[in-house]
Model the fold of this input.
Amino acid sequence: MDKKDIRYKAYIQILEEELIPAMGCTEPIALAYAAAKAREVLGELPERVLLQVSGSIIKNVKSVIVPNTGLLKGMPAAAAAGIIAGDPEKELEVIAEVSEEEVQEMREYLDHVQIEVEHIDYGHVFDIIVTEYKGDSWAKVRIADFHTNIVLIEKNGDRLLEKELQDPDADEKGRADRSLLNMESIWDFANTVDIREVRHLLERQIQYNTAISEEGLLGDYGANIGSVLLHTYGNDISVRAKAKAAAGSDARMNGCELPVIINSGSGNQGITCSVPLIEYAKELNVKKEILYRALVLSNLVAIHEKTGIGTLSAYCGAVSAGAGAGAGIAYLYGDDYQTMIHTVVNALAIVSGIVCDGAKASCAAKIASSVDAAILGYHMYKNGQEFKGGDGIVMNDIESTIHGIGRLGKDGMRETNNEIIKLMVGAE
Done:
């Protein structure tokens, strides 16, 4: 791809926007970020807090441990962490540096301060409004549509910042145009991009996501899916790829205090896009540049799939990321474009039924299943087997299949998402 091509610059910008660090599960961290920003605007410790959140935020915060809190869970814990110890300048690393004294302060704060949670539906799947009160003063911060998108800052009725809320079905304003993504162009870009322009992003992804995956295997986190896989099925590369990715998820879902590089707003998806490729690159002894190009491919394929689905959905994001990993694995083996796209289609055909029921320990098992589907999908094609157009949700070409998956995840599973939320909060 020529550097003058509009897609070249857009693809680099997409990687820069998406491959960013986050400490902990990104939905509670976004809540902590909003709470920290509201505390900064208020200028003093609030004595009452109102959290107004969309259903998908409830789903993705309810069951996950917030890092650097002494294993606290849930929305009040995330808000308290941001209020007591958050640095809003660090965005999704807002609570990356917390002292033992601040952890104790959080616990005392939760014991003595009313933090009310209200379910809202203003038409945005991703919606967080934090209002903090002290005497007659109050401050409000709203984040909508994606994790760092502050659209409103208000103090005592004065609007200090107000951004126009986008149509939930429209492209994100001010960000690279993701409609420019397509599989053929992504393949071209991965093969031709000047690695010097993306090396820093990819090297950081390798370092961060490897570190948390290794910690997941060393520690006792969640359901220890990675260790279970290794103990049960051995140390074959296909097992290691799944185990290391699952271990990274188990660690971050269960309080590990290491950052990850995310993809499509999700640390689990960032881990799934990268860790299996890192393991395969070691096994195949490929040059570092080949790994970089495979990571470019994997990350952009996952983002392309996820663009049609949206930031949060009842469609499990590990499925998209796993298919992206399959594309990258095919690249590491030195295979061609046709092998890559058929690997993606096969993977999507196998595991597209996995639902997202929030962030928690079972995400690691879903990641393992999605990576397994990608590996199976690759070997299917190498053995002359494939799922073809008309087989269920598989369409006649790769772009139609991805578009259909987007419709399924965004529109078709909207009511599924509502029912999952009702089940999780105990509603009738």
